[in-house]
Structure formats: C-alpha cells, structure tokens
C-alpha cells in the first residue's frame, strides 16, 4: 500500500499554477479540472477577507487562491507524514480524496459567511459537502482518483464515517492547530494586507510534525515555538485585520440587513447560498426593504462609525448574544439618542456589535513532554489564551455617519451609555 500512496501523491502532477505565496503549485490534469469547474470558479469572485480592502487596499485576494494554497500545503503535509509512518494506514483513494477535500473545502462559502454564523443559515461545511456530492464536482473528484463521499465527509464532520480511522485522520489534518487551512490563510492574508503578523515558517513546522492515527499529528518540544507563533499571529491578525473596527462595522451592517430580510421573509436563506460578492449586492438591491440600504452603504464604502466601546463580559452580556434581542436594544438606544440630540435616529441608524466567540486551538499533543500543548512548557496556558480572547472581544456601538459627529459630541452621551449599560446588564 505504501508505494501506491506515494504514487498517488507524486505521479502525474504536471499542471502548474503560479501562486504569489507558494510559487509553482502542481496538480494532476484531473485535479486541475476541478479548479475550472463552475462551483470553484465562483470562489474567484469572493474576497477572502470581505470588506477588509477598505482598510488594507491589497486585501483583494480570493477564496479560490486560498483554496489552491490549502491544497498545496495539504499535499506537502501528507507526503511528510507518509514518510514518517502514516503510509501504513493510508490508501491511494483516501490520499487523493484528502487532496480534493483540501482543494474544495470552501465551495460552500458565500459572501460574509464567517460573519453570519448568528443568522439562521446552514453551515458552509454542510453546503460544501452537498456540492462535492453533486455534479459536476462528484464526477470530477472520481476522475481524479478520489471518493466524493470521503472528500465530503472530510470537510463536513457532521457526516458519518462509521468506524473507519482513515477519514478521522484526514479530518484532524484539515482542521487543527497546524492545519493547512490556517497555515495558508495566516500567511496569505498577511501578505496581501501588507502586515508582518501572519508570516509562518512552514518548512520548519512541517519538519516537526509526526503522524498519529487518532490525533492526526503530534509535535515534539522543538515545535512548540512554531505553535506559539501561529497562535500569536492569529491573535494579531484578529486584532489588526479580521476584527478591525471598520471591518466590524461593515460586517455588522450587512448582518443587520440580512437579519431583517430573513425574519420578514423578504429574502430566503436558500437565495444566499451560491452567491458571489457582486451577486449579494445585486440581490439585496433588487428587494424592497429600508435596511437593505445598509448593504449599499457598505458597497460604496460609507461605514458606520464607532461612538463607544467596552470589553465583552460573558456573565453580564448574555442578552447581547441573542441577535434578535440585540435589535430591540438598538431601537431603545436610538430613541434615547434622538431625545438627547433633538433629531431623529432611526433604529437602523444604531448598531451594537458583539464579536462572536473565538478559539485558540491548543489540543496538540507534545510527545516528548507527554502532555497536550496547553499543559506543556509553552507560555500559552489556559490563562494566557483566555486573556487573548478577552482582549479581542470588544463591544462597539456604531452609528450612521450622518449622526456620528453629533453623537460623539453629545453632552449627554456618557450619561445615556451609563444608564443603557445598566439596562443592558453591561456593568
């Protein structure tokens, strides 16, 4: 079986794609055909970082470029692990299925997907699995030498795999602390944003990984600094890029509009799946709803401005985690600000943004220390990770730019926010 696996990972990779980050990336003609399919081509029309280009003009790279990078790192990772013993439980079909899963893992994404998890929408992994199991992707995966059902199950962990260990191994590789997804997006996002925070030493990281059939990979203590670098880079990228106030404002505006449209039946969830960036703006521009003007404002770069911010506290801010209840708080705050300013602020002019939960995966096993990463000699213990998360989750109150300066200069603003904080259990 071992040589067959090596052949599946090495032979016939004759079609190059030139990538800004990784140089030449080679695919078999059959894998290259997947990148030319209609579902994959749609990913070229979705910005990887959504509205982040408003802050970092270079951040116009696409989910397609990212997906090709993930495939490249997945192939390097699997070859490395096969050379270190994993070939004993890998199959040629399984190896190719894993490469297809890495290449296709974002097929179910639609614009702003990661920012819309609070809305009643299906998981993008579930949508990806459905696309892989449908034509034309299903036949293309089979022609490449993979099993479409296995590729779908690797991406969507909600699909059953029975007692087979090989699919579980691939799932651990595709989603973990040192997965090819994270290694690509941290490096790629940093490169295109022009910031240094995400750069990782991929060659060294791959050299410190060892295969484990149940856990996916383990590291030795020499690899601890690499994991620390990834975790700290993720923190810095969230702080400076992913959760930049302007990015939070833009995504919050889109989310507010979509919530209203979904709750009132102006749009159906199914209409969002399969859209690209331009398609989302066109869909909402064609439907009658006053809040859809927020999406048009995002399109033209007219973002709401922050007038207040304070740290999120899970014990005190449970009410704000309910997006529908949060809308009612926005209405009340708009009323109070209107009275204080002597001008009308509509409920849609006020936005309360609460960043979603974020995790810093520390479940990697350190073999020579005999413990998991969070219990190892790393500085990233449970307490430090909790501090990182706490410093990132900042609640912000945004208002329409038409009112922003007057709200900021309002003599009663602090008093209103102080009272409102108490009413919202924010003290």
Automatic annotation (TrEMBL):
Which Pfam families is this protein grouped with?
Answer: HD (PF01966), HD_assoc_2 (PF19276)
Q: Which residues form the HD/PDEase domain?
A: 59-195
Q: Mind telling me which SUPFAM superfamilies this protein's record contains?
A: HD-domain/PDEase-like
Q: From the UniProt record, give one GO term of the biological process aspect.
A: dGTP catabolic process
Molecular function (GO) terms listed? dGTPase activity
Per its UniProt record, what CDD domains does this chain match?
HDc
Q: Which UniProt keywords apply?
A: Hydrolase
Q: What is this protein called?
A: Metal dependent phosphohydrolase
Instruction: Specify the species.
Output: Treponema primitia (strain ATCC BAA-887 / DSM 12427 / ZAS-2)
